[in-house]
């Protein structure tokens, strides 16, 4: 189960924060929320806060890759902040500098 919060603080990039497990049960909600964040961004940046994600698998990685492509199509830089669980998966795929 996940909890999602979107913050549109004036003067900064909108931020979507995710708490909990990004798994098969929450994947569609996660993907839809991030896609809506990207598509609704009026500037050139959006932030994705995954620092409190406790579980993240390869399906989540596939969604992030697809969302990266969508962000590029909208000329939005998606700034992603990660938890250890997310970094582990990204690292296994060779997508981190760690």
Task: Describe this entry's structure for a reader.
This protein is of the alpha/beta class and 98 residues long. The protein has a domain at 23-80: 2-Layer Sandwich (Transcription Regulator spoIIAA). It has three helices and four strands, in the order ββαβαβα. Strands 1-2-3-4 form a four-stranded mixed beta sheet, with helices on one face. Helix 1 runs parallel beside helix 2. The model has no long low-confidence stretch (mean pLDDT 92).
Q: What keywords describe this structure?
A:
98 residues; 4-stranded mixed sheet; alpha/beta; Transcription Regulator spoIIAA; 33% strand
The CATH class of the domain at 23-80 is Alpha Beta
Shape: globular
Strand order of the largest sheet: 1-2-3-4
Please state roughly what percent of the residues sit in beta strands, choosing from under 5%, 5-15%, 15-25%, 25-35%, 35-45% or over 45%: 25-35%
Q: H/E order of the elements? A: EEHEHEH
- Name the poorly predicted regions: none
This entry's quaternary arrangement is single chain
Sheet with the most strands, sense and barrel status: 4 strands, mixed
Count every helix, treating DSSP H or I runs of 4 or more residues as helices: 3
**How much is the average pLDDT?**
92
How do the helices and strands line up, and which of them pair or pack?
Layout (H helix, E strand, L loop, with lengths): L1 E6 L7 E8 L4 H14 L4 E12 L1 H16 L3 E6 L1 H9 L6
Parallel strand pairs: 2-3, 3-4
Antiparallel strand pairs: 1-2
Helix pairs in contact: 1-2
